[in-house]
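Researcher: Quick sanity check before group meeting.
Model: Go ahead. Protein one:
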Amino acid sequence: MASLLRSGKFFRLFSNLTRNFDLNNGSKNESLVRARRGEWEITIHRSLSAAQLPLKNLSDATVQQPLISTDHGVVDRAIEKAESDAKKVGRITKDDILNIIERIKQQKTASTTQSLLLIRCCGSLVPEEPPTSRTNLVQEVWKMLQGYNVSLDISHYNALLRVYLENEHSFNPMKFLQKLEEQNIKPNRVTYQRLLSAYCQKGDIDGASQILEIMKSKDLPIGELVFNSLVMGHANTGDLESARGVIKVMTQAGLEPDSDTYRTLLCGYAKHGLLQEISSTIDECKNKEITLHDRDLLEVLYTAAIHNHPTVVDNMLNLMNKSSGYNQDCFNVILRLVNHQQEDQAFRVLQSMKPVQLADGQMSATGNFFIRQIIKSNCPPEKVISFCQQLVNSGLNNRAFFKALEMSNAFRKPEISNLLLKQIQKQKEMLRPQAFWPLLTAQSKVGGEKGVLDALRQMAAIQVTPNVDTISQRVLPYMENDNVETLLRKLRSAEVPPSVVAISLMVQSLNRQDFASAIDVASKIYLRFDNINFRQAAADAYLKTRDASSLAKLLKSTLRQSQTPGTENDPKDQAAELAGPVLKEVFDRATKPKLEAVEPLLKTMHENGLGVPNSVVQYIQEHAGDEMTESVAQLLVELSSGTLMPTELIAYPSSTNRQNFYKGAQKFVGFAKEHNLTEALNEKKLLESRNFVFSEGLNIVLMDLYAHHGRFDDAFGIFTALYSKNPDIVVTPIKLFNLATSLLKGDRVDDAFKILQRLKPSSETSEQNLRSLEMSGWRLMNVAASKGDVELTRKLFEIIEKSGLKITGMIAGPLIKVHLSRDDIEGALKTFLECVETYRVTPLKSTLTTRLIESEDAQRLQQVMDASIKVHGEMNSLYDLVFAFLECGRVRQAKKVLETPGLRARGPRIDTVCKRYVDEKRITELENLIKITKDVYGVDRNMMYTYLLSACINTKDVARAAGLWTQMQEEDFQPNPEFLQKLGRFLEEQNEPVPFTIPEVLENETVPNASNSIASSLNGKKNPVASKPKKDISESKSSKKGEFLTAIKNGDINAALELKKELESQGDNISVRQKSDLVEVAVKAGRLDVATQLVLELEKSGGYPVPRIFRFYMKALASAGDQQSIRMIGEYLSPERKSLLSYENVLASAIAQDPAATIAYLDTLLNDIKAKSGHTLDEEQLKALRLTFPRGGILGILEKNPNVLPKCQEIASEYVKLGVYGPVNSLWCYYLNSGNLTEAQSTWETLKASPIAIGFQPVCRHIRQHQDVALAETLINMLVSGASVKPSALAIAYSAWIDVHRSKNELDEAIATLNKALSGGVELSLLNVSTLSALKTDCEKVGKSFPYSIPKPSEKPVTQPQSE
């Protein structure tokens, strides 16, 4: 009862407050309560101590100052980084604070804002540090600020009080108050509230009473914060009955207890282990609909744990909802528990954390931070080993022992390191060099060269030998710049083999294009090797420097003279073993024209007597194609002769017959590549008449050619003969797949299987070749799937699987397709689930999902989702389902999926979908997406509304646009100034009233980024930082960023990629422009696979390379015939962007290089158009047909595959039936360029009657390239006969005709053609200005007068050239 009476004392203190309220009446009083509460809530945080503090921005709500000062940029950036970390993960590190302190010490001053934020950093935002350490830190900061005479006002003292409370620092509040008065600093309401909290934190109710009396005398409002403190105060004295009594008083005072209040009470119960009271209080909250979040329950758990009540801990863990942000809350609580030596309870919380799935579907390692903290806090070694073992056994962290070893080294705890090494040695599957890379990196940062050598010795202690990658990438960069002998000695002391050191040194030198150093190493250490790292580095160094002499000298430096010629160590054999692979690497890595780079090296190798194996020569011959020249052919013959010796040059006599044979064979291969069967057979006959024997390789080429033209008996005959003659002959899987595909298309199933029986497991490692192999396997299966033959498709799949080809979603796709083509949903689903279980792939998941949604088959759809989650994780699978529902118009179901507990925003995916909806003018779908994502954690609403506004503006939908402003108010979402300005300007342009004042947005102001917007919305208030201009981080003089930009400038793709990875790991953003430049460098370096990954990375994050580079990259893909990458890129492109990139033309150009793919592509076009030709299409559908037909790409297909002309004619005929003349236009251009004037004239009669703008730029290019005057005249005559052809189009054709005459120095004819154009109605201003200028210059050079005045570009009329 006494305690209740004591709480009655507080009730009397509130009497003045409660007299003003009629607790049983009236809206007026209620509004007054709400008004007063609103006033309090403006400035009062709902948290007092470290046990209660929610994670918020560093800046206190009472401080109305900008985050970043305009004067102290270095300090500002350091503080900005700290705040960014706090927003993302709710914590910062002590190093961040020390960095800020060091910056301030360097400039010997700090602004008031900087000092305020620095003080705030020293509290609960650094959970990894013990409270005493944090208090010492803030006192050091305070002393430093006073020493620099920084102006400290009441906001700084309030911040200091808050840090004291968070650190549970014991101090005398009254003395603190007295100190303020002595310094003539006036306390405010926040000051008194925190002083009262300090008393309550110690359980000093009498002291709290003194503060309350002062607040009463100053007529300061009493809010929830004070009541919560009193609950804490009574609980800390053990008077829990009075603690609950305060809540009753609080209610009588007109204030509603909230989750903060009950959390404080629960912590009081937890401190004393009162489980029953905890349970009843939680039930009470449920009944009152007061939500206790995971963070609240974790605070209760923390209190119970540090007071040794494990039963309460168990109970609280069972109550966790594990909603969004749970892991980060656990992270902070775990660090605090370890600081209180509660490692066992911390580990139990760790085990409760939700597993994190990475983008590749793998699970992220759990507990690295826990390992670091227990080692830092001097946890016993046996306990460390035990925790690591549990993490490994449970699969939470397979690298737990390695992380612990890294941390024990960092904190200099050898007793733990030795125990860990013994444990690591037991993990046989982890004993590989790459597993120690993080350790080496960490050791280099801690101990430099000595740290690295110590790590190497630890590796040696458990018999792990570092490889070349390890030494060159993770060791040498951190070693002192010693000579070779010293480095060898140092690394030998760490038991690194000298051969590994030598190769690593050479690789490092070659990466710098320093041949001299590499030669120095090679000359001192004898190495017999064919090391891939050396080959790649040597090839890259040569291609960048074109220093053939140095490369040859390097190769010779690695050789040693044998005492007995012809023995195993013969330099001639050594040279072939080493130089051959290096030459092949140079050829593979060189960009086209490849032989331009290779030929100088061949000459130098010949001069130095360096021979190469026949296999390398054959490889170059097969892949050089039309680039092969007589001189290169001769060099290859001599280099592979086996007669060259490195010690002296041996001239190899030329052989005219050999040259003639080689030229003939090359011509044969050239005809075969063009699929010109007649000419290829003629060349074969000529060669055979000269007693030339066709090699196995040439016979395989002929076999492909026969199969391509449907001469299956001849093709199969060659195949049989080859294997009869040489059963061990190796035919690449791609060629076997292609031949079998052709046979299947001709219904030669048995023969196809006979061919496939010859498949051998593939040892292919090249990513590019693996993709080609995968595509070939898919084409083979797709033929069977298209026929609807389930059994055949399955048999082919089994053969492909046995061949060793990795089963991907693409390869397994036909297994699903064959069932879907038969409307066998059950069969498709069964096969899909088998693929998921067996191969961890989800073939045709999107198609199958859509079919199931449309048929409303919920049971099967659930099976697809369950399987998808196993492969892609729950988040990705749920978003796939959301977008599938939206695509099918099932908005309600999409929303229900998004209401899944714990579902977080996938920014890039949502951004990509929004872009697509805007591009496709699908405003309703975009509105639905905005509507259903309203309550999804972390969605960037600003981004989505901006897209919706853009869509409204694009469609001129004024009513919809005006309604956005009201809609955003209803959602309680504040539009940024840029949005309001854009909306206001649009309404003004449409003569509509603007219901708000249009803000002025300065040029240097930027839209807040997504992370700021999200942080603001989560905090329930406007972000005080969001509207401030940000520093351009990309312009900071970071050495790493500078190195990265230099690497791009120098075209060093390997260095640029490594630096990019390092920068991104440090949180440094790489701009779209820089990523685009990196794509260009990768393409120029012949690394299309790398370029593709970079482009996909951009697309998945919602961006694209800059247009010029994007087109350059797509053209390179087309030249390489890389259809798969083009299709992958296309998945992220809107129809408009595809049009800008000429996507369909690019894809067709790539397909043109693969005869089998060409036929399949044309078959698809033909089947699609036939399916449409029987229906009436609306204008939008017809427009789509016109835009998606590859007019230019079809020309490329016809030029490379003339045999498909009949099929193209059939396609054009079907398109004409629908009124689409683009294909006819392409055929007309092809006929003109190929000289088939009869067909050209016939096609022209159809084309000129069409309503389309006729394109003929390919004809003009052909005219200029071949200086074909006759074709130019023919083109003009046809165009003139077309009534709809505009003068601007005629001007383009005449310009080409004039250019041909001028290039042939036929100036009189050029002037005559010009006059003819003018007399035919073409104005001078329509002709190409560069053509006219060049003609005028040529005339003046020979003394001829040019009779016309060339119009300036500004005088030229704006036209839409018909040829485009």
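Researcher: Fine. The other one?
Model: Protein two, sequence then structure:
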Amino acid sequence: MGLTIRPVIAAAAAVILGLTAQPTVAEAAPAQAAVDGQVLKELSAKGSTSFLVYLKDQAKLDATARLRGDARATEVHQQLTSTADRTQAGLRGVLTQRKARYTSYWIANALQVDGDKALLDLIAARPEVARIDPVRSYPLVEPEQAKVGTKAAAATEWGVASIEAPQVWDEFSDRGEGVVVANIDGGVQYDHPALVGKYRGNNGDGTFSHDYNWYDPTNVCQQFEPCDTGGHGTHTMGTMVGDGGAGNQIGVAPGATWIAAKGCEREWCSDASLLLAGQWILAPTDRNGQNPRPDLRPDIVNNSWGGGQGNLWYKQTVDAWRAAGIFPVFSAGNSGPACDTANTPGDYPQSYAVGGYNSANQVYQYSSRGSSGVDGGIKPNISAPGEDVRSSWPGGGYATLSGTSMAAPHVSGTVALLWSAAPNLRRDLTATEKLLDETAVDVDATECGGTAADNNVFGEGRLNAYRAVTKAPRGAVGRVTGRVTDSASDEPLSGVQISSGDTRAVTGAGGDYTLVLPVGEQTVTAGAYGYGSRSVTVTVPATGAVTANFTLDPPSMVTVSGRVTDGSGHGWPLYANITVAGRPGGPIFTDPITGRYSFTVPADSTYTVETTARYPGYRKDTRSVQVADAAKTVNIKVPVDHGCTAGGYSDAFSGPLFGTETFDGDAVPQGWSVVNRTQFPGWTFNDPGRRGNQTGGSGNFAIVDSISQGLDARQDTDLISPAFDLRTARAPYLRFNSDLYATAGDDVGDIDVTTDGGKTWTNVWHGDDWRRGPTQELVPLEPAAGKANVQVRFRYRANFGWWWAVDNVELIDRSCTPTPAALVAGFVTDKNTGEGLDGVTVVSPDAPAEQTQTEATPEDPNISDGFYWFLSTLTGTHPLRASQRPYQPLAKDVEVTADRLNKANFALTAGRLTVSQTNIELNQPYGATRSTTVTLKNTGSAPVTVETLARAGQFEVLGRKGAPLAQRQVPTASKAMNGIAAGHDAKATATASATAAGDLAWSRIASAPAQVYDNAAVTIGGKVYSVGGGAGTGTERSTWVYDPATNLWTGLPLMPRGRSAPSAVAVDGKIYVLGGWNASGAPVPTVDVFDPATNTWSTLVGVSNPAPRAAAGTALVDGRIVVVGGCADGNCAGTRNVVVFDPHTRTFTTGADYPLPVAYLPCGGVGGGIYCAGGIDTMPYRDTYGYDLAADAWTRLPDLPIGLWGSPNTVAGGLLILAGGMSENSTVTNRTVAYDPTTRAWRDLPNTQVAVYRGAMACGVYKIGGGSDLVTAESERLSGLGDCGASGVPWLDVTPGDLTLAPGASKKVTVTVTATSGTGIGQPGTYRAEFGFTTDTPYPVPAVEVEVGVAAPADWGKIQGTVSGRSCDGSVSGVGATVHLDLVGSGGKTGYTVVADADGRYVYWLPAGKYQVTVAKDGWTPKVKRQTVSEGVTSTYDVVLDAVSACRTGSTPEGRLHGVFRRM
């Protein structure tokens, strides 16, 4: 209907404007890809964002339907990848040049790009781009709350029984054998008892092979093995194939096997992960995401996820699955009971969507109804059991869930039964859908439209597996069983492929297999790599089984070797990977220095060998290699690509090879032809619409004018060129003038090429959008290079469309000429360890633009990491320099020879510190001093500078309990100034973990005076100060102080000006506040100072920040404030600036830029260094860097465990602490981590109670405010990490604290413990601390743990007891009272004070004597008693206090219950 409306409107406009309007239309602005408004909104709010770029060209998959078996999927994969490689090349080049982060997806011909508005505009203007969409997340079709812990039951689950699957098992001996199912979900517990036996990766001997059987694109699972982070995926897989044994039947097809892709990170699924998972389903890969195997694709893929309506973003993926013969099952969604709620992608016509019903055969209440938001068709397609479905659950147990997520796998399992029972039906998706539809039990439910037989509530009806299998064209079936053995050793062979037509199986660990085949004569083939294959013909009986055993001869292996070199003129060796079709294992890699390679294959066979250079700009070389029974040498010369983009070459276009076709006549030019597939006119040469030449050419032209032919006209017409001989053309191109006016998917212009006289055509250009002239198109003709019989056709198809005009058609050649150049390559290693180093900069100082960084090569097992290469335009002897902090830079002269690879290896030196012992135990009397020594030695190859760092509390804090991990997606998460909603109930931000039971490490303190975020906090004199707050919240000028002694906040004088997300640092007892946004979104350049002693604010006169920022990283080191990165404007464009402010001189200086543009960067000063981690620009970072203020240089350190930004952060106990924040996929978390500079490692700390981001934190450790989707005032504290100083252990001294050791040198440091009250040891007991070492080396240094046992003096005694309080009801409980002990006769000059704990217990050592003991607590009557403390004796004094006020009787005022107010 839309196609009818569109031309009618346009035609009407033409009538009104007259024909003179046509040139105006022709001169319209160039095509601009459609940009989704959400992308623009995110860019406006954030400055940069991540978005998906979809390209216009789509692979032509129609022809693959004629292929059978694995050839079908292989061709689909080849078409998709080649289309993506060809059409994405230009955009990838631009993104690489601009150093933009991107991910390419071949299954949808799309790229995910991180960038700003300028980059977006550049991309949108490119002619190959179709549209730009936001990066979205789609929920797992969320079931109702799981009833977890359900025990295994010796019965068939009601849903499995409802669809009559057991009848299929019993009557047809069919349980889905030989069929592979997959799910894209939240993962699977692969070793669940009900699933482990069905996992394709189970080797049968207790080991597992996860390559090609499991995929986790975001590496959520910590090891390369299947895991499930939510339970959903384990549940859906159980419904497909689960078998708990002992009659515990939870799965529809318990004989099928399974594989899985974790496309859903947790309860959500990002479109990036779903696209990657969709690719993997079509062509599973190894653990490195390489070596795709379309032949290992599953038969069926279950998708219990989705969201929204009418969004075609996943259509290409579903189309690709269908083209490869993969049956796509989708949940309809849980958005009912309203009509028109069917979820995407289940609402696609190509998707088989499933609704849910319950055990009473009634529709599941929340099952989504149709119609489809895509085409208005009936949805769901069918319904299946979806309420109270019991299935497998992580942990080895079972759970009962409800939702269409549970319904879909019933259908997936049924398809497995169908395809196992009826092998001829396998991968025939249309016939399978028809069978499911026809055998469903009709349900008359037309309230959302449709008929009694097919409606938008139940679809075709209730699924019935038994009726479907019974009606399937299966004929009679029987079984073929057998064993495959090695003819030489007679040992069983596992992993052998057994096939008969499209039905196949794989032998297990014992070499056994079973096939279900139609009755009668069948050919069965057994084959394995190297063993070849053997076939036998068997007669399959209607009952029982026939045995077909195979013995396969072990292979005779031969070696193929040679060199891979540049084949276009330079001839230098190439680092490349080589794949051999059918050969198991990963690719073969050439030696990156010599280009040599070697591999073994079975003799007497022919192999397809594909060589891909690791350097950009080279073609993929594919050749057939015939191997006899002797070693063979195959040297491979790889030419540069069609576009001549390889380094060391220059290109130029030739003139027309065969002249220019100008179409100046009114008829078809000589040698050309026109082919029309409809009765309507096609290509003409007389301008029937009188449009004039709008192509950019002159004179006459060729045109297909669809709109001038009227409403009912349909065109499918070819303009075919003569044959051309291009045997001497290196890189032919088609060049022509064009005016393509296309605005819809069925209004299409294509350019195809043939080299076999028109028997087959290859598409090389596709236009289905606005490509208005005048324009000149340049189309590479890669399939035509070097071919003798080349023809080109212009094919136009339209259904009442517009037009396509072409003129000045030429074939030209692109030459590619070598320029003077050489390759330089080698490895950079650590001289101390010999290990390769990644990220080292290697530069040619004589040509500074010629530089690179070393990189990891994890997929190449033959070389270490630390490989580098670059193109050198210099020859002769030149210096090369390799550098990476904290290693010593190294330079060497290298002789560079043109047209060869010149090797230069570097071994970088660094110091390496060892410690003679890591545990010290001392015992000493109170008041004494003891010392010992620890030996430090530099075992490295360069000097090492050491700084000692002592700290207390590590043992206790790390061992304490944190809240359960909480992670929640916040779709509204933003880094912009107005980022979090304000004015809501603060309690709404508390996570479920906030109420976790138990004594948690983080304790709640009094909430801030107001809900606040983007504040900053410092600690001075034990009190916590919060300054500033989020824009528009009324807290921008706020100043509050928190006193831990009273647990109260107090308001202080307002700041001189409002600041949101400022930097605040305490220096010499004053608070210095820098940056932050003002009300208009500009960072504030002035510096304000608060003096707690005078309770006043002031502004430093004449002091202005040269690069003011908001949400910047902030640290204090050597008395100077360092501000790193931050937001340059209200949209928060990240920056790299580093400014240093000296409060004593009141001056700013600048430092070396941060390595990344960043904002909301947690930073802190520890010892003499600054450490920064995480932050965000377009995506959350995991990067960690250290800054040496004296050297003005940054050093890369170990990455964060997860990407985090906006984390409340501080320094305490010598650690940089990040308390939660915003992680990947806009997920707020309460996970708390800390970086330890001494061990150069991240460690987990107890999780906070409330998950927030953009809150404040101060040493102590105090966390104030923040938010998730709402703002909070809640605050909490993690105690035990000491005060703000890095050296928080006054009783521990390490001398010397700073030293430098030459290589091989050693030094004894003295460790001294002073056990006196002046050093913080006020009582006998056990004291623990540790000291570590920060060094300028790349290696961790273990900390030294110190434990001191302090004994009481001989003339001391101990007093202990319990203080209780008696309540009005007579009950007695502990009271945290103060116990003061005054020595009698001292006139009050000698006294001691101890505070009882919450249970009233106290204990105290003190000198012997007679003491007056006073026990007091507000609200209780004090008690006084004299108590004698004897030498070496423990005295006990228990006290019961009475309430000060007399106990009242009778009723209490309304609203007040015994002093506790309740909300009315």
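Researcher: One line on it for the slide.
Model: The mean pLDDT is 88.
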